[in-house]
């Protein structure tokens, strides 16, 4: 039996589980011992004997190793040079062979069968995919589509093709094409090669219209009705929720992915995902595997998901075993045998401790200001719940980034030492901060003038998007106030009442305090002089209000909790930067 007794107990609804008495302490120890059982088995291709050994030891789950894949009858066309030089290892050649073999079969509904690559990091999914494309290219199927989660991965695709000796296969980015025929002159007359695209680009649409106004129509026209080339859905586990089940509606992207497969029934579809068969919901658009649909026990994907989720992890293991048995799934990963680890303690510098303490004070003040602002506008309970959810989420991300930042210097030091010793250094990133960097690039018109602080970006984004303040544009629109007209020429209905004056002053107090807090918590380590701020604030309150009345209402659209009207230090005010950027546009 491929699953141990404890798994069988939890999986089988008919087996009675004996009640464990409180005094049965030794049994608990036995159960803990079972957790240390080997769950992986060393992997070597069983049915295919070509290619050089993979550079590192590879394993597969014990449940998958208990079944053997089908016999190999397909002969690859990949050159002997590629095989003999080890540009594709035996493991990668096995996946390519089984994929090509599976692509020669058809499902009961007439669609060509697909293949799922579930290999983990280090086994070389990229080279395997490149090998599948190369194999088909050699057989005169010279057009291929490669979908992934980021446009940057196009360069990895080009590298993988080049590394296996297929440098003559060109890779084109879909987003670089103009809307229209891809094979036309204004798109460079692209008639063969690989078109690389992101999942989100599939739903791209031209505003000007035309026959090929959507990216999907462009691709369908380029492929043609009888297209029998390769379509790769890479990193499909990251494109989750493409086709949600239940009450939620399918996403546009999900529908586009399904439509592409339905419109090209002869296409050779490859799904690649490190967690391919571990999360059933991520398999939503893998309709070419033939697990559900015509000729299967499950008419719809929803029937399959209900059956699997009701029975838990064991059911997915059985599904994975069945797929391997039928030659449509392969999943290996690098072995951790012989791997050692140690935890390195990073000593914090005084400047870092000082900066961290300032950051804590900043968040304490920010929490107070959020609370005051919510009370000031009489925020309803639902709004408060959403606000605090965003606040504490940003709070966690902020301090996570600070913790990561504290390790960087020591990591660089360790890496340099190991490189001197002739070692290869691989650094795993928890998060890259790419989104914030892209935002900064957009704000700076495509240029970065300074180092991008991800932690600062988290706080700034929180305040810009979720600080409780009325929508002034909407309010003025309802009152019929012209935002372009100066407020000193206002009619009697525009003049605020006494109560509004008080609220205005309170709001300005909050902005002054927040500006002061931002200086206090600056991540550059600079300190600010806080003495006498409270008295200055109260002394200048009236004059601040009078001067604010002379501002145009257009400049006062966004409530700015950073802004201190009495301060001249506006160089790094995110609201002013944002407005200047808008004006420049």
From TrEMBL:
Keyword Nucleus: yes
Protein's cellular compartments: Nucleus
Region feature (Disordered): 485-585
Keywords from the named record: Coiled coil, Nucleus
Organism lineage: Eukaryota, Metazoa, Chordata, Craniata, Vertebrata
Source organism superkingdom: Eukaryota
Organism from which the protein derives: Equus caballus
One Pfam family recorded for the sequence: AAA_34
GO biological process, one term: positive regulation of signal transduction
Annotated function: Plays a crucial role in the regulation of neural stem cells (NSCs) proliferation. Enhances the phosphorylation of GSK3B through the PI3K-Akt signaling pathway, thereby upregulating the Wnt/beta-catenin signaling pathway and promoting the proliferation of NSCs. Improves ischemic stroke recovery while inhibiting neuroinflammation through small extracellular vesicles (sEVs)-mediated mechanism. Enhances the secretion of sEVs from NSCs, which in turn inhibit both the MAPK and NF-kappaB pathways in microglia.
Similarity annotation: Belongs to the SBNO family.
Domain Strawberry notch AAA: 53-358
Location, primary (coarse class): nucleus
A GO CC term attached to the entry: nucleus
Composition bias, Basic and acidic residues: 495-514
Name of protein: Protein strawberry notch homolog 1
Cited InterPro entries: P-loop_NTPase, SNO, SNO_AAA
Compositional bias of kind Acidic residues: 531-545
Keyword Translocase: no
């Amino acid at each position: 039996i491929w699953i141990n007794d404890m798994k069988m107990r939890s999986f089988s609804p008919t087996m009675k589980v004996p009640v464990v008495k409180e005094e049965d302490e030794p049994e608990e120890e036995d159960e803990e011992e079972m957790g240390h059982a080997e769950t992986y088995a060393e992997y070597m291709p069983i049915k295919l004997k070509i290619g050089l050994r993979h550079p590192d030891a590879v394993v597969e789950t014990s449940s998958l190793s208990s079944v053997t894949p089908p016999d190999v009858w397909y002969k690859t066309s990949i050159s002997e040079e590629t095989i003999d030089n080890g540009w594709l290892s035996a493991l990668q050649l096995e996946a390519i062979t089984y994929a090509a073999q599976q692509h020669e079969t058809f499902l009961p509904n007439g669609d060509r069968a697909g293949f799922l690559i579930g290999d983990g990091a280090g086994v070389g999914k990229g080279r395997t995919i490149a090998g599948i494309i190369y194999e088909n290219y050699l057989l005169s199927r010279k057009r291929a589509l490669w979908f992934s989660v980021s446009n940057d991965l196009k360069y990895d695709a080009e590298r993988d093709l080049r590394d296996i000796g297929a440098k003559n296969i060109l890779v084109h980015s879909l987003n670089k094409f103009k809307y229209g025929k891809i094979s036309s002159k204004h798109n460079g007359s692209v008639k063969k090669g690989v078109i690389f695209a992101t999942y989100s680009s599939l739903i791209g649409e031209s505003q000007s219209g035309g026959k090929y106004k959507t990216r999907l129509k462009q691709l369908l026209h380029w492929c043609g009705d009888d297209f029998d080339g390769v379509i790769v859905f890479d990193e499909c586990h990251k494109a989750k929720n493409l086709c949600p089940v239940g009450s939620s509606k399918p996403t546009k992207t999900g529908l586009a992915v399904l439509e592409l497969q339905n419109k090209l029934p002869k296409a050779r579809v490859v799904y690649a995902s490190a967690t391919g068969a571990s999360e059933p919901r991520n398999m939503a658009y893998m309709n070419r595997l033939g697990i559900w649909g015509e000729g299967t026990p499950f008419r719809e994907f929803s029937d399959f998901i209900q059956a699997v989720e009701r029975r838990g992890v064991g059911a997915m293991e059985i599904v994975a075993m069945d797929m391997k048995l039928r030659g449509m799934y392969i999943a290996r990963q690098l072995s951790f045998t012989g791997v050692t680890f140690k935890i390195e303690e990073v000593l914090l510098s005084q400047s870092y401790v000082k900066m961290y303490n300032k950051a804590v004070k900043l968040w304490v003040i920010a929490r107070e200001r959020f609370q005051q602002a919510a009370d000031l506008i009489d925020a309803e309970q639902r709004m408060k719940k959403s606000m605090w959810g965003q606040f504490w989420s940003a709070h966690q991300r902020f301090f996570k980034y600070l913790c990561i930042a504290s390790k960087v210097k020591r990591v660089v030091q360790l890496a340099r030492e190991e490189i001197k010793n002739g070692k290869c250094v691989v650094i795993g990133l928890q998060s890259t901060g790419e989104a914030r960097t892209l935002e900064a690039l957009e704000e700076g018109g495509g240029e970065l003038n300074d180092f991008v602080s991800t932690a600062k970006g988290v706080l700034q984004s929180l305040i810009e998007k979720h600080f409780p303040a009325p929508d002034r544009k909407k309010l003025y629109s309802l009152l019929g106030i012209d935002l372009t007209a100066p407020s000193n020429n206002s009619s009697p209905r525009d003049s605020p009442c006494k109560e509004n004056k008080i609220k205005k002053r309170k709001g300005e107090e909050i902005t002054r305090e927040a500006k002061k807090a931002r200086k206090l918590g600056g991540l550059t380590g600079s300190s600010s002089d806080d003495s006498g701020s409270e008295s200055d604030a109260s002394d200048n309150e009236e004059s601040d209000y009078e001067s604010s009345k002379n501002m145009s209402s257009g400049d006062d659209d966004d409530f700015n909790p950073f802004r201190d009207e009495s301060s001249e230090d506006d160089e790094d005010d995110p609201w002013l930067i944002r407005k200047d950027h808008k004006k420049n546009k």
